[in-house]
Amino acid sequence: MSRGFRPSQSKASAPTGMDSLLKGEVQTLELKKEYDVIVVGAGPAGAASAKALSEAKLDILMVERDKLPRYKMCSGIVFPSSKRFIADHFGEIPDNLLCDPKAVRGVRIYLTGDSPVIENPFSATDSGEEVEAVGLNTWRAQLDYWLCSRTSAQLVDCCRFDGYDRQGREYKVKLRHCGQSVSVNTRYLIGADGTLSRVRHAAFPGFDQRIGLVPNYEEYYFGEIDLEPGWLYVFMDRSITGYFATVFHKDNQIVVVTGVSQKESVKDYFHAFQEYLKKKHGLRIRERTRRHAIVLTDMSATRNYCLGEDNLLLVGEAGGFLRGAEGITSALTSGQAAGCAILESVKSDKTAIGYFLELAAEELNICNTHHETIATVFGYNFFTRT
After folding, report:
1. Are residues 192 and 125 in the same domain?
2. In principle, which of 132, 139, 221, 338 could form an S-S bond with 313, CB 3.0–4.6 Å?
3. Contact 208, 318 (CB under 8 A)
4. Do 105 and 126 meet the contact criterion of CB atoms below 8 Å apart?
5. pTM (2 d.p.)
6. 191, 313 contact by CB (below 8 A)
7. Strand pairing partners for 215?
8. 247 and 338 together in one domain
9. Is 384 within 8 Å of 365 (Cβ atoms)?
10. Could you read off the pLDDT of 296-330 as tens digits, one per residue?
């Protein structure tokens, strides 16, 4: 049985040092003094930004705080919308990035602990030109790394963003790479570094005080459960979650996740959810193999977006983009919008933020619509419980 992530063997368009990174080696790379664009964060948002810029022959640096491939707490389910975007812009996702079951058919929802399941297949809600509208079950660590490898960016891991100084029309970006402090100049800076974005905090130091946080916790098990693989299971009962809880399968493992509001105990809710699964769905745990925690924000749910200023742009969850609770599609589309905005800025010599606001408007509308629909269906906003 597999007990961890299977490293990708794909080397197509791999950046310098990718082989060593996949072997777990930390690369100490010499950074240039100046780049056209610096992207902070090596997830789908950062990859889509860099991909949009790659054809223009711009000098792009992408930095990632952790050693790559790095774990990202996420179901790893690529919805059909994301699958189409990736196929169009990056190519077909290689089979060795997938885990069993490879196909995910949709979402099954339990409104209360005793209510019948509501089945919401992707084919009914996210269909399009595809003959079969199914999602893909991926390992996010390898998916993210593969996406970044399909760009022309110089990818540097173990490199933390420590702030910036503004010098006229340029940003002097402070980085800490393998324990050494370096400064690199750029005209464009993209924050693609997630919910607790250091780029957002540096640019808008008071903004985070207006954000509601949603802690989430997950555990992986070897065992059994009476829930059919190939679906994302969502549980809304307030007695077992302060946000919503999920169950999904990855290879021979069962993943159990719940979330709470900022003032609630995720430990208490997780224990209650675990006991509920044992009683109602036959969860039998033989071994716990891993556990993780993450923090989401209510930015999208409250329309409290932060997209940047001038030539500093925030994408993905750093900017607040989230389609309900699905973030990969929003990360990809907002990242592409930022890259295209910079290309327009280069041509016009105007700042990128104006173009970004225009190009990201459709995705913002989609995010808002998703939250409105969810609030209508469930009767409340599950990010705020109002």
Report:
1. no
2. 338
3. no
4. no
5. 0.91
6. yes
7. 295
8. no
9. no
10. 999 999 999 999 999 999 999 999 999 988 999 99
Number of neighbours of residue 381 by Cβ within 10 angstroms: 15
SS3 82: helix
Domain's final residue, options 282, 297, 312: 297
Distance CA 300, CA 383 (A): 9
Query: Helices 44-54 & 140-149, crossing angle to 10 degrees?
Result: 10
At CB < 8 A and 24+ separation, what contacts does 200-207 make? 200/306, 200/314, 200/318, 200/319, 202/161, 202/163, 202/164, 203/308, 203/309, 203/312, 203/314, 204/306, 207/306
Q: Is the peptide bond before 101 cis (omega within 30 degrees of 0)?
A: yes
- Measured at the CA of 38, the angle between CA 37 and CA 41, to 5 degrees, comes to 140
pLDDT beneath 70: ranges in the chain:
1-29, 125-132
Q: The domain containing residue 191 runs over which residues?
A: 18-72+143-210+301-378
In the chain, alpha helices (H): 18-22, 44-54, 80-89, 122-125, 140-149, 198-203, 266-281, 328-348, 352-359, 361-378
Residues 6+ positions from 168 with CB-CB distance below 8 Å: none
With tokens 């084919």, the residue in question is: 123
CATH number at residue 372: 3.50.50.60
**Is residue 301 within 8 Å of 312, Cβ to Cβ?**
no
Residues in the chain: 386
Handedness of CA 93, 6, 285, 260 (dihedral sign): negative
d(CA 215, CA 288): 20
Per-residue pLDDT of 201-257, as tens digits, reads 999 999 999 999 999 999 999 999 999 999 999 999 999 998 899 999 999 999 999
CA–CA dist 78, 43 (Å, integer): 13
Contacts 24+ apart (CB under 8 A), 18-24: 18/145, 18/149, 18/155, 21/67, 21/68, 21/69, 21/145, 21/157, 22/69, 22/145, 24/67
